[in-house]
Amino acid sequence: MAVSIDRFMKGATAIGKAMGVTLKHLGTKPVTTEYPNEPVPVYPRFRGKHELRRYDNGMERCIGCMLCEAACPTDAIYVDASENDPNNPTSPGERYAKTYEINLLRCVFCGDCEEACPTEAIVLGHDFAMANYNRRDFILTKDSLLNPGDPNVVIRPE
Fold first, then answer.
1. What residues form DSSP beta bridges with 51?
2. Is the separation of the CB atoms in 67 and 119 below 8 Å?
3. Quick one: which of 107, 51, 46 has its CA closest to 77?
4. How far apart are the C-alpha atoms of 124 and 130, rounded to whole Å?
5. Beta pairing, strands 122-124 & 50-52
6. Which of 63, 77, 97, 119 has the most other CB atoms within 10 Å of its CB?
């Protein structure tokens, strides 16, 4: 009989501790973010969807040097460079990227393309919502890279 009372007390103590943890967290705010209604906090160094940048005057930063393509360890980047029209230049250099594509199915978001770019044309942004139903939609073209849109994120402190 004394053994069953001892087991009952140990069990009641364990249940009491578990209920204490539950009651302690009952009044706290949940950790869950109601995405897409609320922005998601990301760190400043978060590597998300790629973006091609422009200068303030509207010219493309990419000069078609193809260093990003050479630096990519998974061959996810394809650049086809062409000569700039002197009367209507696309970029400040002699060449520009006529075709710029990134295959997100191959990309590992390492950031080597960003580091290799001498003009800081390609950057990894903060957009993480890249789900698609079609495999072709995972190939980012130059138009989609130049016009990335605003991600629904908040930059949190490091």
1. 123
2. no
3. 107
4. 13
5. antiparallel
6. 97
